[in-house]
Amino acid sequence: MRRMVAETRLHPADLILPAFVREGIDTPVPIEAMPGVVQHTRETLKKAAVEAVEAGVSGIMLFGVPEDAKKDAAGTAGTDPDGILQVALRDVRAEVGDDLVIMSDLCLDEFTDHGHCGVLDADGRVDNDATLERYAEMAQVQADAGAHVVGPSGMMDGQVGVVRDALDQTGHEDVSILAYTVKYSSAFYGPFREAVGSSLQGDRKTYQQDPANARESLRELALDLDEGADMVMVKPAGPYLDILAKVAESVDVPVSAYQISGEYAMVEAAAEKGWIDRDKAILETLTGIKRAGASTILTYWAVEAARALR
């Protein structure tokens, strides 16, 4: 009876798998703070993509982890056609074709030696406009490599419009933009920075949103839609369900939510201690995100949860 009258239904097609691929490794490297998640080799990433298709997951979001020696102030490995992220995009596209929506993280933070999401000026501050030029280049090479969707995540002003223009001018009108519209400066990103080998010193408070504020989210939403976003995202998911609900009520485009590394790690750590029922907690957190208004959910449990739902 409860199942029959349930108001919210979670489906495998709602789920997107974030995945990390690391340059220069022969075997997957476990991420200590995210039990069960690894930095993939090119070969194991292809296998993970096939597993996602077989489980009924709709998409995969790729993050590249370059060798430290290839990081520099401008993040040039991120726009190198033979950089790890572009190579991985080609690998996955060749392996699964259009059976999986292949998404790419469009940001410089994995590729810069200072760990920030943009180019720095002479005073060590992120230069918004100089960064946008780099994002335009990234969009082009990622689309050339086979991305169906690019996800500009750096929270630079005007990033969606610049990326849309860059795609359209290079014949990639059919490549969609998943805008990281609402991205808070959160304490829950810690494990992710291990996952991508971040070189960040300090924080990103000058360009990510203040957790105390809500109205800014709707202003960012209006700007991203006006600039051509096809889909919008709220990140993190769990601590910001109120924001997710407001965004979902305000738009007629698909809304994604990213259940981030710290959310994942909390459940895994509590379950390892025997304090919660892990499997039930996973589905409960995902159902809560869907109930708040998410059309799709990026979660490291995507394949596992999809299998449980089938």
Set out the fold topology.
Blueprint: E1 15-22, E2 29-30, E3 38-40, H1 42-55, E4 59-65, H2 84-96, E5 101-106, H3 128-145, E6 149-152, H4 159-169, E7 176-183, H5 190-195, H6 215-227, E8 231-235, H7 241-250, E9 255-258, H8 261-272, H9 278-292, E10 296-298, H10 302-309
Parallel strand pairs: 1-3, 1-4, 1-10, 4-5, 5-6, 6-7, 7-8, 8-9, 9-10
Antiparallel strand pairs: 2-3
Helix pairs in contact: 1-2, 2-3, 3-4
What is the general shape? globular
Mean pLDDT: 93
Q: Provide the succession of SSEs.
A: EEEHEHEHEHEHHEHEHHEH
Q: Count of DSSP E strands?
A: 10
Low-confidence stretches: none
Instruction: Give the amount of beta strand, in percent.
Output: 15-25%
C-alpha termini separation: 19 Å
| Estimated helix fraction | 25-40%
What can be said about the biggest beta sheet? 8 strands, parallel, barrel
The whole-angstrom Rg is: 18 Å
Number of helices: 10
What would you call the structural class? alpha/beta
Strand order of the largest sheet: 1-4-5-6-7-8-9-10
Keywords for this structure?
single chain, 310 residues, alpha/beta, 8-stranded parallel β-barrel, 10 helices
